[in-house]
Each structure stands twice: as C-alpha cells, then as structure tokens.
C-alpha cells in the first residue's frame, strides 16, 4: 500500500467538474414514479434466529419492476418507535446472515439490511438471496458493473438504486420504526448506494457513507487497475465504440451528481491507500456534498478503511443525531 | 504445465458413470418445442466488409424466448449449395469480426459464426453483439456459469443450447447452403455447445469438438482450480445448501449425456496439460460418444490444444466427409 | 479450490498414530502449576461502547509469567448466571472491537474474547492489545509459529495455551457468569487453542472447534504450501539440523494429543477445500477426540469453512447443551 | 489497465530528441550492400493447404548472411498483378500457419508473411520455422533483445531488419505481385520492423505500423516493467559497465531514427493503456515520421490495441491507397 | 524494474528536513551507558572450519541487556595488527557460515560478522544463531520492524544498534586486530546498522553503507509497497491510533539523524531501480552525511545494487584508506 | 514447499529405465575428437583482484569449435601441486567475480570457475563473459534449453559439455595444479555438467554433484511446471511435431546416461522440496551412478539444497579424498 493518489491537501480541495445530464432529475423522477406503480408489498416474516436480544424478520418487498427484494429487518427485542438504519451491501456480497448485522440493534437501532439484486453468490461470507431478473439487451463483462451499461434505462444500478429508495419506504412501514428517524448507510458499493438514496428519498434524515464506490467513474477507470472499476475498462476495451454511450449512462449514476443533491448530514470516510475506491474519487463525492458533512480520513488503510472503528464513530454520531440515549 | 491428470492409457479407458435425469430427453424436447413457437425470423443483412473473396451477412435470428441472436454468415464469393459449418464461440468471447473467421469460407465452406448470448464484453479480441435478457431469479457469481443454476428451466445454458440448435436451422435457410451438409464446430465452450447441438438437432451431419468445456462438471469442479469451472465452486461455497440443486441442474447440461446421444461422426481433440478443461473431462465425453469418432491428442499443450493445426486436420476431415474438392 | 486432500470416506477413517512424549501430562501440569503462582488478578473495567444491549468490560488478567492479557468481557445487559463462551482468535488477529463479537451476548451468553499475545498488528480488521514479552533465545521466522520452537519450555504456544486456560478461570470469576456452564470456542488458531484448553482445563463443559490449526503438524508441513504452517518449513529449511528438536517441541502442542484427552462434547467443523488447515489434519484431531463429538463437513469451502452458518449451528447446539431458552 | 503514461494532449506533442549516430545511414547502406552479395534465391514451393480461395507458397529466401528465411506467400486464387503486403510478426511468434493469415488475400491482396529468425518456439499459436545461426560473441539474456547487443554489427535486429528488407525484394519477384504496390505491415515487433523497412527499402509504398516495439528504447526501459523491454534492463543490471555500448548499439535500431526517414504514407495505431509498448514510445516514432501519416488512438486498450478493428481500417486505407476495388 | 523514484539530478539534491527528537543524543548516550553496565565478555572460540587460509572464531559477546550475541571472527591465517571490518547483515538473514564471508580475510582484513538478534530463521542461505529475548509489551506485525515500536525504549532496533556498537568493541579486543583501523559495513539493513554505528561509536574509522534500509521511514512507507517497510504500514493500518507514537519512536532510529552525525569517510551505494530501499531514501541519508563521502550509483539495478562489483570498489577504497598493501 | 514427489523410501529405490541411443559413446567420442582439433590455447592472464590470499587468473581457452571460453583460475597465494576443483555454474549465471569463488582456494584447493557459454546476462549476481557464437538452425524458446534441440549435433549442451571437458584439460596445464587430483563440481546445471564431465573425461578423480539439472528430462517435463525444464515444454507445445526428435536429442545429454558411466567417487545432494530439479530426477541420476557414491538428503529444502552446509561437507570429503591437510 502506498500513497498513490493526490496528497491529502489537494484531496481536500479536489472538486472536479461534474458531468451531469440535463434530464438527470427527470430521469430519476420518472424511474421512481414508474416503480411506485408496483405495490411495495413489504413482508416481514419472523425469522427463527437463535437470538434473544434481537428480533429478526426475513423481509421481502417489491423493488424495481416489482421484483422481489430480500432483506433482514433487525429489531432490538421489545423496541418501539426506534430510529432505523437502512444498510446497503458492498460489491459481491448479499445480506448474509442476521448474526452478521448485530451492531445497529445492539446499539438501540432498528436496521434493515438490504440485498443487492443478483449479487451474493461468490463471497462465502456474504450470501445473497435476490436475483436480478433483468439480464439486459447487451453483452456484458462478468460482474454487474456493465450489465445494461449502454442505456441508462437498462443499466443495472437503475434497478439497484430504485430498490434502495424503496427499502427506505419499507423500513418506514415497520411498526417498531420511527419513520422520522431513518438513516442510510453503507460501505463501498453500499456507500455509493447510500449516497444516491440520501439524494433520491426525501425522508432520509442522515447518511453514513464509507469509502464509497460508484463515484467519479471517469477518474476511477483511469487511475486504478483494481476491480471492480476495471469491469468498465474491460467493457470499453472490447466494445470499442461505446465510450460515449457508456459515460453518458454513467453520468446518471455518478455519486458526484447525487452528492450535489445531498441535503442531510453526511458522515463520510476515506482511506488514503485505497486502490479500489481511490481517495480522489471519494473526495470528489464528499467535496460536492451539498449538505452538512464531515469526513474521517484513514491515512494508512486500504479499502477496509476504518472498519469497526468507523462503525463506532457512526454509532456515536447517529445516537447524537437521533437523540438516542 | 504438467501432466496433472490421469496417464493417457487410463484416459483412453475413462468412462465414468453418467448422472442423467429420467426426463432428460423430455426436458430438451419441451425446451425446443417451446422455442419453435417463436418464428425463426432469420435476417441476413449484407455486411460491407472490405473483402473480395467472401460475402458477409450480419445475421440475426430469434433464439430462445424469441430473443435476437447475432451471427456472421460467411459465404465464399459466388458459392452455391455449399456445405456449412455452424461455429460456436469459446467462453468470454462473442462473434468478433468477420475477418476473424476466414478459414471455413476460404476452404470452400459457408460458415455461420454464432454469438453466445450475453458474452463478448471482456475479451478485446472477441466482441459480442447479443444480450441475454433473462437475468434469472437468483443471485449469481460473476460470469455466466451460475446464472439461473438453481433451476434447469432458468439455467443460462438452456437458452444458449437452444440458440445453438436454432442456428443450425438458420444456416439451413440460407440460399447458398446445402442443408444436407451442415456440421457444428467449436473450441472449449464452443466445443461443449457443438457436442450438445449435434445430439439435439437431427439434421447436423458432423461434429468438430475441441477441448470441450461443459462436460463432466462433477469431476471438473473437484480437480481444477482454474476458471471458469471455479465459478461453480464459488457459487457452492457461498450458496451453501444448494449443491444438490446445482448438480441436478447441471445433469441436464452435462456433455457426457449429450455425447451418449451422439450419432454423427465426431472429431474431438484433447490436450494433456489442459488445466482449464482437464483431459479426463474431455475423454469422459469422448468415450461416451455413441457415434463414429476419432480424437487427436496434443500431449504437450494446455487449453490452446492443437490450435490451427487442429483446424487443418478438421479441414481435411470435413472436405473428405462432405466430398468437397 | 480443489479436493486436494484425501476423499471424504478416507478422511472419516483417518486416525494417524500420535507422536506423544512420555511426559506430556507432566509438562502441562508443571506449566499450569507454575502459572498459578501468579495471581490471576482479573480486572473487568467497564468499557463505554455505544451499545445498549450488551455491557462490555475491558478485561485484563495475568497470563503465563504473570504477563497482562487483554480480553473483552461481553454480557447481555442485565444478564445473570449466564452460560459463558470463552473465545480464542484466529492467527494474525487480536480481540478486535467489542462490536465484532455481538453474536454470543445477543443470543443470551456471556462471552470472553481473549487476545492471543503478540498478535493483532497486521490484520486491519482484528487489532490486538497484548504483547508477548518473551522473545525467545533463538532466531525465529517472521510470525509466531517458530518463536522458541527449539525448546518446549520456550515455545510460544506454551504461553498462549496457558493464557487460554487461565482465561477460563477469569470467565468463572465474573459475577454474571455461571461457572458451571463455560464453553471454549475458536476458529482456525482459535480452534486449536480451544481444543487444547478443553483438554487442559477440567471445568470446561463444551468445545466448539472450527477448522482447527495446530494439529498434526507433521502432515501439515508436508502437504500444504500455505501460511502459516509454512513458517515451520522455512525455519527447518534455514536452521538445518533442528528437525528433531522442532518436532519434539511440537509434540507437546499437537492438537491430536489434546484431542485424545477430550472429555466434553465437542462440535467440530472442517472444509474439504481448505488449503490452510488441510482436512486430513482436522480429521486427525477429530478422530482422536475421546469425548462425545460431531463434525460438520463443508465440502465446497476453503478455510472460511461454514462461516456464520457454523455459528448458527453452534448457537443451537450450545443453547441445547446449556439449557438456554 | 490505467492511463499510466502522459495525457493524450502531451503525447500528441511528444517529440523527444533522437540519439542518432553520425554513420547511421552508412551503417545501413553497408549492411544491405553486404547482404546483397548473397543471391536472394527466392523459392516459392506450392503448399498443399486445404484451401480453395487462396494459393499458398512455402517460401524460402536468403536473408542476412545468406541464411534461409521462411515465409508464407499467400495469393488470392487466380489473382495477378496484385498489390502485396509484406507482414512481419510480433515478438515470440513465427509465421504460424497459412490459415492464420487469410485477411489480406481474402481482401484481394497478395501477402508475404515473414518469419522472424530464431523466434517461434514458445508461443503455441505462432510457430516459426527459421533459425538465427548467429549466436553472438557475448552472453545474452533469454529472448532475442540482447543477442549481440554490445556491437551494432552483431546485434540481432541487424539481421532481422536485413531479412525484412530482402523480403520486400522477394515479394516483388513473385509473378502475381505488382512490384509497384508493396506495403509493409506489422504489429508490435512487426510494427517496429515495418517502420524500419519502410525507411530502408526505397520501393516500399506504404507502411502499416501498429503499437510498434523497438522505438525510443531509452524511455521504454525507464518507464515499463513489462517484457520484452525488460530484457534490456536485465542485461544492463548484470553486465554492469555496458550501458554506453548498449545504447550506442540501440541507436542504430531505434524506430525514431527510422521514422525520421519515413517517406511513404504511414498508418499508425497506439493504445493508451499499453504497458508493453508505452504510448509515449509509439508517439515518439509517429511524431518523428517524416512522411504523410495518420494515427488511430485506442484509449481503453492495452497492447492488443485495435486488434481486428485496426485491420479493417487498414484494409479500407490500403484499398484506397492502392486503388483496389 | 523502472525508474520509479525521482530523477537522478533531483536525488542528488534531495535533502529532506529531518524529524529529530530533542533528546536524540541523550537517548543514545543513556542506552549505550546502560549497555556498558554489562561486561562485554567477548569469547572467541576457535571454529574448525575446513579452511587453511583463514582462522575462524565462533564469537559470542554480551549485547544489549547482556544478551549473548553470536558472530564469526575471521582472521587471515597468521595475520597480526590487521585492519578490521565489522559487518552487519541484511534483513531476514543471520551470520550464516564462515565460508560465506571470505572476501575480507582473503583481502587481508580481519572481519567480524555480527548476527542480527532474532533474525536468521527464514532465509535458507543465511542462518542466524542469536535470539532476541525481549518480545515487547505490544502486539507486533510478523517480522522485526514493529517489535516494540510504540516505545523507543522497547523498539527492536534499540537493541540491535546497541549490539552493533558493542561489536566494534569486541573486534577491538581481538589480538589480531588493530583497534585503530576498524570499519563498519553492511548492505540494506546491514547498511542501516553500519550508518548508525558509525555515528554512535567514536572509534569507527570508516563506513561502507550499501543501499541502506532504516532511513527516511516516512517517505519509504508512503512510496513503496515492498517488504519490509510495509511491515510498518500494516502495523499502522491495524493499530489505528498509533501513528504519532510510531513515528516518534522511529525518529530515534532514522538513518538521516545518524548520517547527520557522520564524521568518518563514508562510501555509499544506491540503485535507481530499488523498490525495497527507494533511491530517495538512500540519498536522504547520504545527502545528510556530515563527513567525507562518496556514492556509487547503479542506474539499472534493483536492491541487489552493485553486488560484488561494489565489494571490489570497497576493497580498493578500504585498502587505500587503511594503507593495506 | 511441500513433499510433492515420491516419498524418500521410493526415491531411494527409483531407478528408471534409461533411454540411451546405441551410438551414445560414439557420438561423444567424435564430438570430443573434433574438439581436440582445436588447440586448447589456455591463457592465464594475471588479474588484479584486490586480494592477498588468492592469486586470480583471468583465463581463456578454446572450447567447442575453438570458441573462446572464459574462466577464473583461483590459486591460494604461493600454492604448488595443488588439488584442483573445476566448477561449473548454475543456469542463468556466469563465472561472476573472483570474490564469489573464494571457498576452494581458502581451503587449499586451486579452482577453475568455468563460464557457461552464452549465459550470464540476466542474473545481476552472476555475470558471464562468454558468448555462444552458434545460434542454431532452428527456432528456439527463450533461454538455452532448446537452442539446437532438434539435432544432437547442434544442441547447445553438446558445446557446453565439450567446453567443460576441455576445462579439465585447462586446469591440468596450470603450473600450480596437480593434474592427478582434479575434481569436478557444480550445483543444478553445474551439477549436471559435472556429472557429464566426470563420465566423459578420464582424468577426473572425483565429482561433487548438487541438485543436478539435465537429468531424466522425460520425467522432469511431466511433473514440474517450473523453469527451466518448462522451456522444453513450451518448445514442444509450439513446435508440435518434434517430440520424437527432441527426446532423441536429449537422450544424448541425459544425466542418467552419464551417471551410468560414472567411475569416480561421487558426492550427490538432493532436496526433497525441490520443484526445479525434482528429487526423483536427481535420484534417477544417483541411483544409476556406477561408481562409489553417497548422497546427502535435505528434507526441508527447495532447490537451494544444502547451500553452504553442503559446501562444508564437500570440503571435508575432498580434503580426505585428496589427502589435503
């Protein structure tokens, strides 16, 4: 691990021009409107986890296209009117097991752990239970980054972000949740999704965004040779005439454009030796964030960032923000 | 490269028991019947390749589910009533460019080079132009090997094999083709597809099967740590309770079961240092092949097998078989 | 990942001869007796974790040589007379953070998470807080496997196992713990330590031993080229005349010899594609276990074994064993 | 793959000073004069390829030192007075098989595919049939880059470039070839050879130079750690006092010096993520090219550059240039 | 290998600010004073090497804390009043065998080859015979770089440098040695130790410092991802709040601070493609060296630097300096 | 490193059938006779090494084809009628520097360190000074293993072994050498050369053969994927029809056939974890050795074998054998 990206002083100032399509807001409005034609249909099936301190609900709801999306609803046993964290998952992973997600409920929060459609079948520590029935009209590189990438309407993350927005609605419907105190959170891909969702859903009250992926694609594909950004490079190297279409599509999904619409308090983290989500791409999002914000810099870490240490900071932050005692 | 698998003498005798579902034939009959409810709709659009000796047609037809499948129809300029080779592509690749496929037409054969749906966006020398609109109801590992693998009906290769069978019909409709002299051919995944198609389509007259993939899955996933068989291992390692379902699904697609239905003359090749499609899995198919057969053994090669040398042998073989002068 | 070790049928029968020194029991008796001359001095300092469902105590006690050993005592808020799990950590890691260890307390158990001395400064997700003041009189390979390996008295794991045994005493002193219901548990190195502790401490009532390390050293160093067993090979390759001394030392620490002294119900797990702790070395321990036992086989996994899935099985098992409702 | 070299704007302007020996032209005049004392002795033996559209001649001629050089002469069946492409091969490869080289003849060109002496015995897809009888008076690193590198007279590429120039003469003698329409072409090493040959042979009429190797050695050995430029670094690291001699030798072979003598229309290509022939070394040649020129930039590709796509552009270009209909 | 660091012109000027604690000299005075409370107790046991030209003594002396340190004393047979080279060893290695160290005695010098405590059990060509009994109060990353790194008093290199200083005293006591002509020497870690010892021991008369390690830690950990500097990065990444303590500790051991106290003639070497001890860190030491100095630049080498060629230069240099005929 | 080859008991019995051409002896007689038509022309130029205990001669002699071969003659200062070791070098290396070869002279032996033609330009610690002017009539893989491999007359090692045999004559001519006490020695390739030379030269009196290369080629290319045996596999994979010719050529050079002609006392060594020269190939030579013999087994080492430890054993052995006091 080395300090391969800009020095920290420059990172703190790095605010690259955004490439935003004129119909960005219209695109997302239409997307979410379309989705809302499907009944949300949240189903909280009690799950027999061998746990006493937490009640677990195997949750299903209708995401983009009405497709069934799986999640775990975790509620501190006996809790009511609880603040809730909607959490999204890092790339390759799924919702895993309830016992993987005990931090929030042990700290007094409800939590909804949301599958990322199609993912969760390659990482033995993080299985998923949700498919992405939409395969796309185009060839794609292995992984999800380029599924449908030639058309914003078909792009994989259009469905994922829509699922994520609707998950906030799902959380709000749970009887134990105080719908006025919902935060979104995630690491890496999960951070990218949280960043987008905080911009897209008016009822989100806070965002916890760790080493976010899906942000400043153009720079990312030029400076890092690590996965998963390289999926895009492989696609461009093979589908040789598509760069304009690809970057046009990505402009509807770039975290910088969502960050510029951020309203709520955001807590970011970044790692200076992160070759997967290079620090300049993270600061590109953070520096554009329009709302209240703070960022924790982990100077000696790679993509693991602050790990549990960041989680502890988030707990303190969110308890303060949501007046949890 | 080493001789890591069985010695050649044992390979020549290796004929493992097949795991064949009782409704194997019914499954495929139903699958192809369903497919035939979609009009084949072959479209041969003349393609302006800067070539004089070969006429190229950018071809589209309706594959499984009526989905548009792309192919190149290559015809020696001015040829008529030509024997035709329907060729399938190796894993990760697509139909590429017409100039990648000049061997058959220069040797006096028409050739139909068929895209593998969804593939062809990661290998810069082999671009594809066909999507796989069916994403599947389940999580999947990156790549195509585990898309829909929990259900034979949804498994990716059900669609691919169906496309392949229909491609033979497409070739037969072309005015320059003698429908009575159609061969199927392919290397690796392409060899696996050819092996299946030769068993599934009654009008195929010959099969050229090089270092075939998709054969004897059970042994492959146990003895090689190379891609792409490892996609299945990763899936099984993550989706921990699915092994029975996975192997049941694969039993409908295992090359051994198609080989046992082989009727036409088959020319196989195998490489003894092939870690990707281990020689015992190739011989598992070959030794079960029910028709006339021969196999070329490349003792010092890896998965590249005989390369162009095998192509030359195939040209001689096919010219003899199809009485081409 | 491949099935590189024996087939499962042979593994189930594999019970290699043990190399046990005549004074094995005397060695350990003397070691523990010596240790008991140091006051245990358990200190449970309340730790301000931002958690509501669990009370955390930053714990210190006097381990081997009276050295301070750090641990986390985790108690379900308000719990009393609780069964307790003493958990040991995998190689390279330390006790980490309290939020890394919420499973047992959320399920109604107290848990003591014990640092492994000297480790925990290379794995960003698992920091330790305990030193190993004893450097040893000999040169050593990087890592801990060969520290003091030329002399059983000086060998690193003599101190580690002693710390582990005393940790059980520590747990028993905590007011919330029912000293009659203490289990030991661990994965990999942690499993090896649990296996030893269950044999060495008469008050342990159950053992949960996952993909254990430190077992059947002789075979391990001959068949796997992965870390950390290779530390021993590097040592032997460099310190060329020491093999007899090294294996004599290891005979006092080999998991097979502890397993043969196992009295309590043991729940093992093993992964058939585990190149780090090869399945034959795990079965070597399991098949020698003298007490009641069961083993879960994960056929498609590497060293991650069953992961959280195994944790769930353990919860059910231990709740039954310890009559937790 | 990343954009590791200069940004495109700087690449377009990058025209480093050339290190050219005063007797550069004299050296090459003498070299070619010496070579011409050997009778060219072109032998076009009809080769029984199983092809109908192309006639193949297994060709041998006397190269540098009168050594026998092998090539494939490919002629569209029945063609006469054809324009001809003399094609050189990439590093590690040989002329391969006739079926590897069907593009030019299928497009109406004769083609002479020229072995690179000594190469073609390590790459299974590209076998050679020509030795380099001159081993050199010095130690050499594996590979061909440093054979004879301490003396321009003995340097390997002196022989190779001479073979290449004489191959143009060979093509001109073939009855089917129009000697007034001969182009040279090649990829990587082949591009470097074509670049040199176009400068050295007065009758060449066009040059197709893809991602050329053997150009701007000094920069190449300083910025890329990939083969084969690293052969030179290894030599310099071992033969510690030879840098001056080595770079003096290379100055007689540097593509920049040939490019500065380019007269004919040249079509270059470059890939911006090419770690093997870094883009700045390619532009160093291109920007020095003295004749008419154009360059295709492949921004997302590595050393594969444009692949078949570039071949299609070349076909269009050459058909226009040579008035092929 | 590439020129990854600054260009040579900038390296020659690179003289970064030093981070030197106010009590640097006091720290070392106290350390060495403390050490001197232990009797040096040099023991030169004649060693039966099967050599005639050199007499070998298996040497032991009391290093830091009175710990026994092993060394080889090599004396040209029959030599008296000889100049002597005290040589330190590269990271991972130990004193090895007498036959590994014949250069100095064959050239007319006595030589003392000093073990580095704790090292020498992982590199088969360089075994050590000395332990480091002090394990440290903290967790550490594998290897020696971070043992005790949270406290200057406990840091591993405090003991090593003290051993090294006392080794000079040991050499001076040998009857065959002229105590007025003692040089220190070493490569990599050995160079770093020699650099420190030359500053700490007033009787050293010359220093031979090759590609020194342990110099300009701050830059090293930021620009190279190679071992062993990465041990520090891993520690910092895991022990997340310790950076200030770590760099404070390192400031007592940084080669730049010793170089600034260099009085005697120093002969350095540096390699421009050295990724292990980057050239800027070497020049950081060299440019701060306060005494007479010269440096040999190996432009095409990695960490092997000049190898035996540098040894020859050193022989000439030292024979001149010490008036050896 | 693992025990990947046969168990030691089987290795001790492993004596595979030899593939020996009928004219093996005639081939070598003719080869050496031919060579002897060139005057040996040994030239011992005094070399100004800065050494006092050893006199060094930069030696040149006429090897195969009369080509100049370089060597270092090392003589203990003032020695006369000395036994002499003729030493050959491992693959990739050359004679290096005189200071690399001080063991024999310091122990009272003269030593002739012989370059391996063409090698010594890739390994910075072992430079060579000798070219191999014979490049061969065939394509070759990088490295020397396949140069001329299609014809025994042209094979590279025919020249190397001839050089080696003549080097023994060279040593015998030196005034300080007792021609009746000459041994040959070498490690890896050097061991293979020594093994051959001991069989080919009647005046050799002893052989020291460490982890020999060039022995039992057939098995080696089948069981190890490491260099340099893989050069042969790459050749065979590319030059597809040459296996019979290749193995016929190798049968003239296989160490087993030389071993079967061994007359003098041989001291072998073998390492059980040697992936480069697998132990079964070493024992294949050793078990065929016809003369007196002993072998040292290094059970935990890779190709480094016994390293300096083996050198010490050889010194004792040779001093005894040659009555050196």
TrEMBL record, chains A, B, C, D, E, F:
<dbReference type="InterPro" id="IPR008391">
    <property type="entry name" value="AXE1_dom"/>
</dbReference>
<dbReference type="InterPro" id="IPR029058">
    <property type="entry name" value="AB_hydrolase_fold"/>
</dbReference>
<dbReference type="InterPro" id="IPR039069">
    <property type="entry name" value="CE7"/>
</dbReference>
<protein>
    <submittedName>
        <fullName>Cephalosporin-C deacetylase</fullName>
    </submittedName>
</protein>
<dbReference type="Pfam" id="PF05448">
    <property type="entry name" value="AXE1"/>
</dbReference>
<feature type="domain" description="Acetyl xylan esterase">
    <location>
        <begin position="1"/>
        <end position="319"/>
    </location>
</feature>
């Amino acid at each position: 691990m080395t300090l391969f990206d800009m020095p920290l002083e420059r990172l703190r100032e790095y605010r690259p021009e955004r490439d935003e399509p004129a119909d960005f807001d219209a695109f997302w409005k239409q997307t979410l409107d379309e989705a809302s034609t499907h009944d949300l249909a949240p189903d909280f099936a009690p799950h027999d986890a061998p746990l006493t301190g937490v009640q677990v609900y195997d949750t299903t709801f209708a995401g983009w296209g009405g497709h069934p999306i799986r999640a775990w609803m975790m509620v501190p046993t006996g809790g009511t009117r609880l603040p809730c964290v909607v959490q999204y998952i890092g790339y390759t992973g799924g919702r895993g097991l309830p016992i993987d997600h005990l931090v929030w409920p042990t700290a007094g929060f409800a939590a909804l752990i949301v599958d990322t459609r199609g993912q969760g079948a390659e990482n033995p520590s993080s299985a998923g239970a949700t498919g992405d029935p939409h395969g796309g009209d185009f060839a794609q590189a292995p992984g999800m980054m380029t599924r449908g990438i030639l058309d914003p309407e078909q792009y994989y993350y259009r469905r994922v972000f829509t699922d994520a927005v609707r998950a906030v609605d799902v959380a709000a419907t749970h009887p134990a949740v105080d719908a006025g105190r919902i935060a979104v959170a995630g690491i890496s891909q999960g951070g990218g999704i949280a960043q987008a969702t905080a911009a897209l859903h008016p009822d989100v009250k806070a965002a916890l965004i760790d080493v976010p992926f899906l942000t400043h694609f153009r720079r990312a594909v030029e400076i890092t040779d690590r996965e998963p950004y390289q999926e895009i490079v492989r696609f461009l190297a093979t589908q040789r005439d598509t760069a304009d279409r690809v970057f046009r599509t990505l402009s509807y999904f770039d975290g910088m454009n969502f960050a510029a619409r951020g309203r709520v308090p955001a807590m970011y983290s970044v790692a200076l030796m992160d070759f997967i989500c290079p620090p300049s791409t993270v600061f590109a999002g953070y520096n554009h964030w329009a709302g209240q914000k703070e960022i924790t810099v982990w100077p000696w870490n790679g993509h693991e960032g602050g790990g549990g240490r960041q989680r502890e900071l988030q707990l303190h932050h969110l308890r303060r923000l949501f007046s949890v005692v």
